[in-house]
Amino acid sequence: xxxxxxxxxxxxxxxxxxxxxxxxxxxxxxxxxxxxxxxxxxxxxxxxxxxxxxxxxxxxxxxxxxxxxxxxxxxxxxxxxxxxxxxxxxxxxxxxxxxxxxxxxxxxxxxxxxxxxxxxxxxxxxxxxxxxxxxxxxxxxxxxxxxxxxxxxxxxxxxxxxxxxxxxxxxxxxxxxxxxxxxxxxxxxxxxxxxxxxxxxxxxxxxxxxxxxxxxxxxxxxxxxxxxxxxxxxxxxxxxxxxxxxxxxxxxxxxxxxxxxxxxxxxxxxxxxxxxxxxxxxxxxxxxxxxxxxxxxx
Length: 298
What we know:
Elements: H1 2-25, E1 27-30, E2 36-39, E3 46-48, H2 51-59, E4 66-69, H3 93-98, E5 103-106, H4 113-118, E6 123-125, H5 131-145, H6 151-167, E7 176-182, E8 186-187, H7 193-201, E9 204-205, H8 219-225, E10 229-233, H9 234-237, H10 250-253, E11 257-260, H11 262-268, H12 275-289
Helix pairs in contact: 6-12
């Protein structure tokens, strides 16, 4: 009788341990929509629909878990070999399903989440727009991927931005700058991750935070603010001098313009793990072009 009781106790203890192990293995992480995702284990087949998230997964050392990406994900080099599933806002649902993912990473603005969820595919929504958002995205993806010290990546990024800031000559600090994102014209305001990087570098953004992260602006505003330095990608440079009144802007008149290649622009406009690289690109160009600029096409 006593042996039977001991056996039952041992069986119950074993069951409790097993139940406890299952609970420990289950993952629960809340995304930027406030939705808590519960997974039985860390995802092994991931489709990423946002370049910044693609880069973050790889920066965490987990590129091998990606089985598909959006058409704009092009870094690191290895992701170019992965199947592309369309754009982040309007991906090809059938192509995603065919990859049998156990998780899809999407932007908050993506319209695909409801359809994917109805097909039984878990979706985790993240859309970093500030430095704090990037840090939070790294933390959440680290949880999902079961990376023990994911914040090590953020510490390295933050330290890299600081190194870039210290590299700027004293003469450049306080320079009034305008960063054009595209020809809308849309600019990078102080509230954007680009604006935050500019602030860390010690220069003055002519677009205040109250205008929003990436405001579409009246071109006359730039004329009125008369920046000392303009930062712009090659694809948006054409015709800038011909805009009404822009030939009078100091930055254009004195050729104080940083012009970025398409590859550099990719780095600059993505709120992800290459923030420090972006800071170095901007710092180097500003060191070369301000105040003795010479790069604007004649």
